[in-house]
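Notebook B, p. 112. Complex prediction, attempt 2.
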Amino acid sequence: AQRVTQPEKLLSVFKGAPVELKCNYSYSGSPELFWYVQYSRQRLQLLLRHISRESIKGFTADLNKGETSFHLKKPFAQEEDSAMYYCALSGLSDTGRRALTFGSGTRLQVQP
Amino acid sequence: ETGVTQTPRHLVMGMTNKKSLKCEQHLGHNAMYWYKQSAKKPLELMFVYSLEERVENNSVPSRFSPECPNSSHLFLHLHTLQPEDSALYLCASSQEDQRGTRFFGPGTRLTVL
């Protein structure tokens, strides 16, 4: 079975401070990891994928297979980064089908 | 309208009512999903349709009945719901081979009285 853990329900930082949203996973195969974001009054949307090795809105995430982590980072937080962030893992489920499993989410609050 | 649309955006219903949620995707995708998002639980996958065939049902109570008449439309029929079914119901679509990438609709906020 695959599992995604986001240990923090709420992360509050000041504008300009570094941000790290933690994500750990459990999966026996080779995982594909994603970060989704949901801004206030907006729909849930894909932020970035580990296979793309991209930086979106200043955010990056590196897959660490040794620590089974995929933490989301940004060096300088901005107020518009305030949102709900979900880590997700795509892997083969027990039925043999590919499934996308979401973590419970972390609310990021960036204070002025 | 482009992307994934859902109607209605808000719905209040009694426990004896029957209602339906509608989802439409304009992205040419071949897979569609229903998710439940509530304050107390993580995002829960309810149903998956691939090429109009239901391929996954995550132990959802029978009071929720999905329907996928074609690859662009997805319905969730509701009957005799319980107050604990109150939540935000999200529809999503994807291409079957684009693993992990989901395009979400805005959701229907359901309140069961």
